[in-house]
Amino acid sequence: MDKTKNIEFLTLTSDIIVAYLSNNKLEAQEIPKLITEIHESLLLATATKPDINISESPKPAVNIKKSIKNECLVCLEDGKEFKSLKRHLMTHHQMTPEDYIAKWNLPKDYPMVAPAYSETRRALAVSIGLGKKTEKSKTKRKKIHMPGFTKSQNSEKV
């Protein structure tokens, strides 16, 4: 240990001892033991330790590849199965789908709805005619001429 570090530790030790003795009664023969214990504690607290990787990636509840099933999706946070993950993530884990994908390093196209459920909803939408263009929308809208109005007057009244 270099000289400046040793001086810092001695200064810290003396500051701690003074603070301790100002609030506690101690026999004179116990003071050297207290000084030694505090100094050793400071040395141990600042001793070089192997770096602990705090940013270690979390372990999912299930294997990521097995989290997508046809009938359900398995939440990587708690291992529960759902047809749709979005509401569960927000209510139980306070995460958006974007947060979830980023946390688990999932691909951007990771589904938030089970494939079978998505297909069922798609079939229902098609059966009631959603997503189809009607005959009206295929033909161009006719411009309606209103006498007494010019193009600039129509845009001002909007």
Write a structural description.
With 158 residues, the protein is mainly alpha-helical. Among the domains are: 3-46; 64-116, Orthogonal Bundle (Arc Repressor Mutant, subunit A), CATH 1.10.10. Helix content is 47%, strand content 3%. It is built from 7 helices and 2 strands. It has helices at 3-23, 31-46, 86-93, 97-103, 115-127, 135-138, 151-156, and strands spanning 73-74, 81-82. A two-stranded antiparallel ribbon has the order 1-2. Helix 1 (3-23) crosses helix 2. The protein is elongated. The model has no long low-confidence stretch (mean pLDDT 84).
* Largest sheet features: 2 strands, antiparallel
Helix fraction bin: 40-55%
Whole-number mean pLDDT: 84
Oligomer: single chain
Q: First CA to last CA: what distance?
A: 80 Å
Q: What is the count of helical runs?
A: 7
Strand composition percent: under 5%
Give helix and strand order, one letter per element, not per position: HHEEHHHHH
CATH topology of the domain at 64-116: Arc Repressor Mutant, subunit A
- Determine the structural class based on helices, strands and strand pairing: mainly alpha
In CATH, the architecture of the domain at 64-116 is Orthogonal Bundle
- Write down how many β-strands occur, each being a DSSP E stretch of 2 or more residues: 2
Question: How are the strands ordered across the major sheet?
Answer: 1-2
- The low-pLDDT segments are none
Q: Which CATH class of the domain at 64-116 is shown?
A: Mainly Alpha
The general outline is elongated
CATH superfamily label of the domain at 64-116? ROS/MUCR transcriptional regulator protein
The Rg value, from CA coordinates, equals: 35 Å
Region (Disordered): 132-158
GO molecular function: DNA binding; zinc ion binding
Organism: Bartonella choladocola
Protein name: Transcriptional regulator
